[in-house]
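FAQ: What does the model actually see?

It sees only this:
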Amino acid sequence: MITLDDTKTRIIVAAIKAVRQYGLEGVRIQNVSELAGISSGAIYRHFDGKDQLLVECFTYVDKQAAAIFEHLKFNPLFMLTDPMGAVKALWVPYFRFWTSRPDETVFYHRFRDSTFFPQYDKSRDVTYFKTFIGMVDVFKKVFPSLDKINQDLLWLHVLTSTVMYAKYVVEGTLPDNQETEDTVFQLLTTGLSGYLKPEKPKKSRRK
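And it is asked to produce this:
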């Protein structure tokens, strides 16, 4: 649960909506002020300016996305019997989080795709993803072959593609149905199945 001062939350929600309407570069504090129904001065009492506001909007959405993993039931044994099913059980709630939040999805996609994001990404705190990271660590212990994949490339592929497809859904480019969900998952995980194989126990040499 994300708890903030009511006025601050109101500003953040308005800013996220404003970015969807005016774009990341085009949005102005005045746009946010109008959508929030408060003065520009009130916004500056909570934020130094547009850049800080956008960063806090991203963190607000990012923490909400991370929170969904706190409520998922995760059974490591399921990975052995149905590896791809275990992956899908984690991915589907994440994808549906984005498709159910149009403003947040468009904002998140635009922010991550901006020239501003790489520098910000170097110093941001992602400790709120510790539950998800713990799940990934379990996968890597069961399937050591996953370590052969460049981790930055893997998560960039999964995260960026998931949000991009969700954006296409909320904008109406793709239909919001089960077929789309299944197809997106298949596209994202093509090639991953080869790495989801438990390591064979090494044969001991007879002396």
